[in-house]
Automatic annotation (TrEMBL):
GO terms for molecular function: NAD+ binding; oxidoreductase activity, acting on the CH-OH group of donors, NAD or NADP as acceptor. It holds the Pfam family 3HCDH_N. One of its GO terms (biological process) is fatty acid metabolic process. This is 3-hydroxybutyryl-CoA dehydrogenase. Residues 9-187 form the 3-hydroxyacyl-CoA dehydrogenase NAD binding domain.
C-alpha cells in the first residue's frame, strides 16, 4: 500500500506529549491511526486531549468541522500490541529506555505484516541498538519528531546501518503527508539536531564557567548581535535541565568524549539540585507563575563617564578606523600615554593582543565588530585594566543609543566563540556524513529556529575568519575543544564555501 492511499494506517505506541503530537499530525495528514499505551486508560486520555486540540483549531478557523469529525473516525485505540496488526508503519514513542524499546520491537514483529515498517521516535538512542534484537532489521529506522510536534515542521529520518533505502524513503513520504519536512540522517549519537544543537548551549555554558559574562549578558549578545530568538541560557531553561543535561551526556559519551561536546559542572549541579528551568521556576534564571524571568541583572553596562576626545588604535585595522570615523572620534597617530587604546581582535583576547603588540594593557579596550552592532556592542578589557578606560569607551560607543555589554577577557569575545563553535560542529557533521550540507542547514533552522543555517553562518562570518577564530582559541586555551574541523580548514585554505559538498 502506498503512503498516499486513503486507508494507509499508522500505529503509534506511547500516548505522552510526543505520541499525541504524532497522532494529531497523522490524522491531519489523512492517515488512519491506531494508538496504544501501556498505562490503563492512557490512550483514551490522550485521544480526548488530541480531539480537544483539533476542536480548538476548528474554533480558530484553522480546520473545518467536517474534516475534524472525519479525523476522529480514523482513530482507533488498541488494547495491546496485537492491535498493531493492520498498520503499514508503527511509530514507537515511549520514553528513552533502550531495553524497553527492544522489547516493544521484538513483540511487534510477532503481530505486524512482514513488510510493515517499524520506526522509533527516539531522540538520541542508536537505531542499530534498537534494531539489534529484531529478525528483520532492514525495516527498522528512526522517525524523530520535535516537540511540540504540531508546530515543529522538521522530522529526522534516521537510517540504521541495515535500514533499507525504500524504508527511509517511505518514512520521508509519510513525514511529508503529515505536513513535516523530512531530513535523512545517518545513525549516530544524537543524530543531527541534538548533536548540532550542543554547540550553542555548551559554549554559552563554557563562557559562564570561565566567568566571561552572566547568563543575561551572554543571552543579550546572542539575541541582539547575532539574531537568535533565544539566548543559550533562556533556551536551556525552556527545554529543561532534566532534558538537555542527559542528552548532552548521551551525545558526549556517544562520541567518546570529544571535547567539542563537553558541558560544564554547573550544568550537572543544576540537574542534581532539581533546578530544571521554567518547569521548576528556577534554573539559570528565576521565573514567575507565567514563565517570566524574575530579577535578572541587566546586560547593559551603565556609566556616567565622559566619552574621550581622542583614541589610539592598537594596530592598523581598517574596520576599526571606519568604526571610529562613524563615531566622529579623533584617532591619534602618536600614543599620548593617557587616551584609551582600541582594538578589534579576531579570536584573541585583550591580554594576548596587548602582549603581542606591546600596547599598555591598562588602557586597552577591545571591541567586537564581527556581528551586528547596530543595537548592542560587546567590549572587554584585560585583567588589571583601568576601569575608567572601559567606562570612557562605553560612553563613546553607546552615546547614540546603542547598548553596551562589558565582559571579562575572552578569546573571541562571546559572539565569535559561540558562532564559530556552532559552525564548526556542523562542519564536522558534514565531514562525517551525518547529512548533506543543505540538509544540515535545513534541519538546524527548522529544528532549532536558528537565524540561518550554521554552514551558511560560517560563510557569512567568512570561512577563513571562522577557522582563524578557532585556531586562536585553540592556541590560547590549549584545548582541542576548539580544533577546526577538517571540513572547515580545507575550505578555508582553498577559499571555498562551507556549504560546498565534498
Amino acid at each position: 500500500m502506498a503512503v498516499s492511499d486513503k486507508d494507509f494506517t499508522v500505529g503509534v505506541i506511547g500516548a505522552g506529549a510526543m505520541g499525541q503530537g504524532i497522532v494529531q499530525v497523522g490524522l491531519e495528514g489523512g492517515c488512519k491511526i491506531v494508538l496504544h499505551d501501556a498505562k490503563p486508560g492512557g490512550a483514551e486520555a490522550a485521544r480526548d486531549l488530541v480531539f480537544g486540540r483539533l476542536d480548538r483549531l476548528v474554533e480558530k478557523g484553522r480546520l473545518e468541522a467536517d474534516a475534524v469529525a472525519a479525523m476522529k473516525e480514523r482513530l482507533e485505540i488498541a488494547a495491546d500490541l496485537a492491535g498493531m496488526a493492520p498498520c503499514q508503519v508503527v511509530i514507537e514513542a515511549v520514553f528513552e529506555d533502550l531495553e524497553l524499546k527492544r522489547r516493544i520491537f521484538g513483540e511487534l514483529e510477532k503481530h505486524v505484516a512482514a513488510d510493515a515498517i517499524l520506526a522509533s521516535n527516539t531522540s538520541s538512542l542508536p537505531i542499530a541498538a534498537i534494531a539489534r534484537g529484531c529478525e528483520a532489521r532492514g525495516r527498522v529506522a528512526g522517525m524523530h519528531f520535535f516537540n511540540p510536534v504540531p508546530l515543529m515542521k522538521l522530522v529526522e529520518i534516521i537510517k540504521g546501518p541495515e535500514t533499507e533505502d525504500a524504508v527511509a524513503a517511505t518514512l520521508a513520504e509519510l513525514g511529508r503527508r503529515m505536513g513535516r519536512t523530512p531530513v535523512t540522517v545517518k545513525d549516530a549519537p544524537g543524530f543531527l539536531v541534538n548533536t548540532g544543537g550542543r554547540a550553542y548551549t555548551t559554549e554559552g555554558l563554557r563562557l559562564l564557567h570561565e566567568g566571561v559574562g552572566t547568563p543575561a549578558q551572554i543571552d543579550a549578545i546572542m539575541k541582539d548581535c547575532c539574531g537568535f530568538r533565544m539566548g543559550p541560557f533562556e533556551l536551556l531553561d525552556l527545554t529543561g535541565i532534566d532534558v538537555n543535561y542527559p542528552v548532552s551526556m548521551i551525545v558526549y559519551e556517544g562520541y567518546l568524549h570529544d571535547p567539542r561536546l563537553k558541558t560544564v559542572p554547573h550544568h550537572k549541579a543544576l540537574y542534581e539540585a532539581g533546578r530544571l528551568g521554567r518547569k521548576t521556576k528556577a534554573g539559570f534564571y528565576r521565573y514567575d507563575d507565567k514563565g517570566g524571568i524574575l530579577d535578572a541583572p541587566s546586560p547593559d553596562h551603565a556609566t556616567d563617564a565622559a566619552a574621550p576626545s581622542t583614541v589610539i588604535l592598537a594596530e592598523d585595522d581598517p574596520r576599526l578606523t571606519e568604526f571610529c570615523a562613524g563615531l566622529g572620534i579623533s584617532i591619534s597617530e602618536v600614543d599620548d600615554g593617557v587616551s584609551p587604546i582600541l582594538c578589534a581582535p579576531i579570536g584573541e583576547d585583550a591580554t594576548t593582543l596587548a602582549a603581542r603588540t606591546g600596547r599598555d594593557y591598562r588602557r586597552l579596550v577591545a571591541l567586537d565588530l564581527t556581528p551586528d552592532i547596530s543595537r548592542r556592542i560587546t567590549i572587554m578589557t584585560a585583567p588589571g585594566a583601568d576601569p575608567a578606560m572601559r567606562d570612557a569607551v562605553a560612553a563613546l560607543v553607546g552615546r547614540e543609543g546603542r547598548k553596551v555589554t562589558a565582559i571579562q577577557d575572552s578569546p573571541g569575545f562571546v559572539a565569535q566563540r559561540i558562532r564559530a563553535m556552532v559552525g564548526n560542529l556542523s562542519c564536522e557533521m558534514a565531514q562525517i556524513g551525518l547529512a548533506s550540507p543543505a540538509e544540515i542547514d535545513l534541519a538546524m533552522t527548522l529544528g532549532l529556529n536558528y537565524p540561518q543555517g550554521p554552514l551558511a553562518m560560517v560563510d557569512a562570518m567568512g570561512v577563513a575568519t571562522t577557522c582563524r577564530i578557532l585556531d586562536r582559541l585553540q592556541a590560547i586555551t590549549g584545548e582541542d575543544r576548539y580544533r577546526p574541523s577538517l571540513w572547515l580548514r580545507r575550505r578555508a585554505l582553498l577559499g571555498l564555501s562551507a556549504t560546498m559538498a565534498a
